Amino acid sequence: MITLLYNEVVSIKEIIIAFIFFTFLTLIFFYKIFLGLIPLPTDLIVGAYHPWINYKWGNYIVGVPVQNPKLSDAVSLYYPFKSLVAEIVKQKQLPLWNPYMFGGYPLFANVQVGSLFPTMIFYLIFSSPIAWTLQIMAQPLLASFFMYLLLRHFRLEILSSIFGGIVYGFGGFTILWVQWNTQAVTSMFLPILILLEDKYLISRKLKWGILFSIFLCIQILAGYLPIICFTLVALVIWYIFKTKRFIPDPKVIFFIVLGASLSAIFLFPAAELIRISQRVVETLGTGSPFISLQNLITLIAPDFFGNDATGNFWGSGDHMDFTLYGGITALIFALIGVKHYWNNFPVKFAFLIFITTLVIVVENPLSVFLYKLGLWGGSSITMNRANFLINFSLSVLGAYGISLIRQSPSKLSLKPGIWIFSIASGITIGLLISRYILMSNANADLEIISHINISLKNLILPIILIITVTLLILLTKKTKLPQSTVILVFIIVLIFELFRFGLKFNTFSSPNFIYPETPISNYLKKYPYDRFTAEKDVFPANMWLPYKLSSIAGYDGVYPLKTAKLLASANSGRSDTPPQPRWGILENFDSKIVDESNVRFIVAVKRDNNGKVSEMGKVSSKLKLPKYKEVFGDKGVVILENTQTLPRAYLTSRVIKASDKEALELMLDNSFPIRTTSISDFEFNSNSNEDLKENLTYEQITNSHILIKASANIDSYLVVLDSFYPGWKAFIDGRESVIHQTNYNFRGVVLPKGDHIVEFKYAPNSLKAGAIISGISVIIIILLLMLPRFFNQNTNKR
């Protein structure tokens, strides 16, 4: 690629040096890795939840302190998923299925996982903690580098391009989402895609179109679909502005389709999962998908509403969702860039993207209308995911603004700094007046005063930075300081403010805290084919996955709708309740569905009369049921066995036909004999006078291959309490058999009498079809490279 990017402006040597520079800068930001820490909030595992919190870890006497609880998805979703994929691949298997959550659901098709993303190779070479660290570090590194290449393509000089690269790579969106290892991974491709699109539009050379398709494919493989949608919007806007045509160029469409078809091996299974997931009906509930106008202050003061890392965030929503910060230095120079370089096409484009993004993410009639159309990924997506476009705009505009120092420093304007200072100081004065009025009132709300104090404190540094940058601009205007030195000073100021912000929010913890063994986890691991669930704050969602424990519950943005409906019915006791959202938690332990889903164990805590966890305490009243008996305990955490649970696989002699709604109602009916009568989409009866005698063993050969040895004295029906999902195939003694949806969400096959070996294998047609399309796309690229004449015609140049 370096050779292909060589042109009259950027040399290969420069590209290599730039990459080395951004690598060095990344190492500085992640300096704590040299202290033995990793960019993963493992402090949350051992410092916030049972059973780990009950033990001493490391040198901490009174417990491991938690820095930022908002980063919990890193340890409950992304790290476990990626580690599981690597473990399966190392066993020379395809990472298709996750049997440990939601009763089983797809792993490869999960958009949160990124199984085929190139940096997953790190997990095959290094240990998971090291591989994770390299993945996290790659995000700001590549985001900065890609932006640098784009700015150099715009013919900005080197230091200005470095400035813009730092803004995009270490600015608010990238650095806030970096430890989630999905959102920022996806967004880092926007600059390189615009670069390659523009290269093709200018030259019409095949190599740029193919590279565009390849990078689009890689972005899709990163998995975060809303950001991919926003990226495509930006690419369309660039095309329209560049060509001044609303009619799409067939060749440009071809390369977009080629990029998507290259990723079909992932897109097809992902589309299948999304289509039948709870995502199609899930909403945000009472939360708003938009940013309020008051959040625009975070362009100046990112911690105006506090910070999750310091435990004083008081704003609506999440700090990482509604923070637009790209740096005071970048904001001031962005305004300078708009004023002095308005006639430059990239400036107009970046400004349009900035305004368009605000229109999309800030609540207004148009944004609400577009949201209701479902353009961005359904009714459960939050529009703040478009915030990366704000960072992109600030990067481009800021780079143009600071380039004025090279071209005409005397034309630098003080007005942007003065405007921003006026806004910040005006808000500060308003807050001081409000605090004075409130404190004069004996009945004043102390919480509001506390919020004002937080905002006032967090306005101090931004105001200092505004003054500093404005004075440096004044000094540059009035003196003849070396231009490179001046730009370097501004870059240092930018690095200071962005690194301070990023290091404050992100957590670096010990790798020794990654899911350590406990007596509780060791006990549950003795029963790999029996499910468990837990009370709130005990084994939080998905944190059992690294121990290979199975549950009907889980937490994910996309999982099968029927599982969500089953969980909701169990919790509410009704068949007409709305499906469970992404938090697929089981809370009603008295529900018959708990028994019917092979939930054998409940992990709970004992509390004393003061609510503190104690071995001498008692479990919650909702668990004081006859069917639960205590079988193990340690340090106030206990394991209760459900004596009425159904086995993972069993035989029945009768099947009745029922609709989905009727099936749920029967499963909730305590009088229905589900152990002897199954519910499906057809009827079956053994028609035997003999009582059914069965002998079964259940074994998970691989994550996507189940083997059951079954023996019965009469014709019967085999029920397997694993999720019913497209792509599973059943084989009885090597001959394929039909799998029926059973007991609403599980599987069943008709089994003749006698001894049999029954196998269930997951081989989805969506994966096969996607693999064929991806393979054909690779062949097309090879043919294009061999026969490039048609695409290399210099037609329709701008």
What do these coordinates show?
This protein is α+β, with helices and mostly antiparallel strands and 798 residues long. Residues 794-798 have low confidence and may be disordered. This is Bacterial membrane protein YfhO. The chain crosses the membrane at residues 15-35, 100-126, 132-151, 158-178, 214-240, 252-271, 322-342, 349-371, 386-405, 417-439, 459-476, 485-503, 769-791. Keywords: Membrane, Transmembrane, Transmembrane helix.
Task: Write a brief structural summary.
By secondary structure, this protein is of the alpha+beta class. The protein folds into three domains: about 10-35 and about 70-190 and about 275-305 and about 315-505, no CATH class; about 520-640, no CATH class; about 650-765, no CATH class. It contains 25 helices and 20 strands.
Core attributes:
membrane, Uncharacterised_YfhO, 798 residues, Bacterial membrane protein YfhO, transmembrane, disordered C terminus, globular, 46% helix
The DSSP helix count reads 25
The secondary structure category is alpha+beta
- Give the strand line-up of the largest sheet: 13-14-20-16-17
How many extended strands?
20
Unreliable spans are 794-798
Rounded to the nearest angstrom, the distance between the terminal CA atoms is 24 Å
How much helicity do the residues have?
Answer: 40-55%
* Proportion of strand residues: 5-15%
Radius of gyration: 29 Å
What is the count of distinct domains? Answer: 3
Shape field: globular
Biggest β-sheet description: 5 strands, antiparallel
Mean pLDDT: 93
